[in-house]
Amino acid sequence: MLALACLGVLPLPPAAAQVDISGSVALQSEYRYRGQNPGKGNAVPQVTVNIDGVAGWYLGGFASAMTIGDADGYKLQGYAGYAQRMASGASWEAGCSRITYTQAHANDFSECYAGLSFARGSTRVYYSPKYLGFPVKTVYAEVSAFYPVHPRFNLVAHAGVLHNISGGYWPGIPTTSRVDARLGVGVPFGNWTVQVAREYVQDDDRRYAWYPVHPPKSWSLGLTYAF
């Protein structure tokens, strides 16, 4: 977690003591990233930590076990950015992140993003100059939302599109664009949440040679504890 590691080496001003620390630990039925599953579909543990400053700056980290083909390892992501609330009640944000795969460092890459957050949803646009380690520029746009149907459960939805700006053939990257979507139900129990969702990703035959073939539609199950 690159962003978290910086806390131990950078001198922090006195105002930095006024921070909020939050996060979650989760167990997901399978690892998915923008609709794709590079592994065998086995359950994976995940952890997220966020540090928010009163001035609007934030940083954090995410870690997930994952399998690429037959190679077990971890995805590690550090990120930092700035967010500010607007008069309308919505918030805007911008930041950058670095993603590292412990078993495939050739696929490490960086992204920068900007987005808006609302009471019941958010939208972001990401730009990478070298997506998944390849010399190809990409843009990923996503919209996520939830709706409290009942005090005991929420509807959750996500839609995204990955667009290849550079064009050309690259393993695992669409020639033009690829769409992914998720629709599910989240059931909270105090700090715990169980989520069941139906996943979809457009099948464009752009896979890594070591990726197993998964159906474009599948079910996913997750258990999350927030702190």
Beta-strand residue fraction: over 45%
The secondary-structure class comes to mainly beta
Summarize the amount of helix as a percent range.
under 10%
H-E string: HEEEEEEEEEEEE
Oligomer: single chain
* Low-pLDDT stretches: 1-12
Query: Would you report the number of β strands?
Result: 12
What's the arrangement of strands in the largest beta sheet? Answer: 1-2-3-4-5-6-7-8-9-10-11-12
Major sheet attributes? 12 strands, antiparallel, barrel
Give the termini separation. 18 Å
Compute the CA-based radius of gyration: 18 Å
The overall pLDDT, averaged over residues, is: 90
Shape: globular
Number of helices: 1
Your description of this structure?
The structure is a single chain. The protein is mainly β. Helix content is 2%, strand content 59%. It is built from 1 helix and 12 strands. The chain has a 12-stranded antiparallel beta barrel. The longest helix has 4 residues, at 2-5. It is globular. Mean pLDDT is 90; it is low at 1-12.
Labels describing this entry:
mainly beta; 1 helix; single chain
Concise overview:
The chain has 227 residues and is mostly beta strands. It contains 1 helix and 12 strands.
What are the SSEs and their pairings?
Blueprint: H1 2-5, E1 19-28, E2 44-53, E3 57-68, E4 71-85, E5 91-101, E6 109-118, E7 121-128, E8 138-150, E9 153-164, E10 177-189, E11 192-201, E12 217-226
Antiparallel strand pairs: 1-2, 1-12, 2-3, 3-4, 4-5, 5-6, 6-7, 7-8, 8-9, 9-10, 10-11, 11-12
